[in-house]
Fold this protein.
Amino acid sequence: MTSKQHDSRSTLAPITERREIAPGLVVLRFLHPAIASAVVPGQFVNVLPKIGFTDPLLRRPFSLYWVEGDECEIIIQDHGRGTSILAHSQVGEHLDILGPLGSPWRYTSDDFDTAVLVVGGVGVAAMPLLTKHFLKNEIPFATYYGARNASLFADEYLAQVRYATDDGSKGYHGTNISMLRDELERGSHPRIKLFACGPTKMMQAAIALAEEFNVPCEVSLETEMACGVGICQGCPVETSETESITSGRKFYLVCTQGPSFLKEQIVL
């Protein structure tokens, strides 16, 4: 979709702030009262790399990182042509945004007493609004944040954070999954649910850990998309055998049925 094929559901939003929070990580704040008032934790927006560009052509999906008043924020990892263009956008420019999209986290369930947020890389973008909900509603939670080294943490809106680094430069020396395993073995968190977002291998490890300790787990998937509304069928994820029998579907779409899925629903 190009700006000449402007989706009637998308709108232009002025950028009001740009800041770098870690190497290669940029936050863009934009004014959009409708999205700010409607978004719930776990939803995302689909953004054109640049208004008027046809190359790159497709939108990029971003979790809603933060909301304050009529303004919203997204966090961008500068690692490709489209994301680089977005990351270098400046205050006063406009973003062509479609959203809020997707299904939110299942955070109001009564199947847990303590929420455990498992975070890796830019998966952090899905966690601040969830953190805000738990703080506001006085729901016990803990955050296990892993990165390669201490310079890569983006924790400005997080709370109750336990850090893990591959090189031991901050917090636990090892992965956040290993750190969480140690604490679960000590019985530190009774009746928990895992909420995980990050690299696929980390989420696979979180699911395996949840199955080992027989606790609920939900993952928020990060994947390439095109339309973001289920038309192009470009973001499928395989359903589990049980889910396939129940739903009659071999695949779900991350943009509409997700991005958040219970571990029993999909094959990751």
Q: What stands out?
A: The first helix runs from residue 33 to 38.
